[in-house]
Design goal:
6 helices, mainly alpha
Length: 129
């Protein structure tokens, strides 16, 4: 879904779609998920990134794959708790992209950069805390 050539554009597209989402009942533009909530998700992503980055082998250990799977569960949990997080994760295809990591160091680093791009565009386009 994402690669080195398109992840920045995909992140911007996802945030732009969230910015223009209109509530069908009220007709008003809905507020996006808060920057704080996205940063919490990015923090979990970054913790794993810091373990993955120094590795030389592209195949991740079972322990790191398990941490990535746990990250996916944390996203699911946050999506269940907060509808705006669900909108964010669905628009950005987060769960599908996590599944596409397939234990690859390169894919995880790309996912992490995609998350950073999402946070950056969210803040750039006026995301609130």
């Amino acid at each position: 879904m994402i690669n080195e050539n398109n992840y920045v554009d995909k992140a911007e597209e996802a945030i732009n779609k969230l910015r223009s989402k209109v509530n069908k009942k009220t007709g008003k533009t809905e507020q996006m998920v808060t920057t704080t909530k996205i940063r919490n998700l990015l923090s979990m992503t970054s913790d794993i990134y810091n373990e993955v980055l120094p590795l030389q082998n592209d195949k991740l250990s079972d322990e790191l794959v398990g941490k990535i799977e746990y990250l996916r569960i944390r996203f699911v949990y946050e999506m269940g708790r907060e509808p705006k997080v669900r909108d964010f994760a669905e628009q950005a295809d987060i769960l599908q992209i996590i599944k596409e990591i397939h234990g690859s160091r390169k894919n995880y680093i790309l996912f992490s950069r995609y998350m950073e791009a999402l946070v950056a565009f969210h803040k750039f386009y006026g995301g609130k805390d």
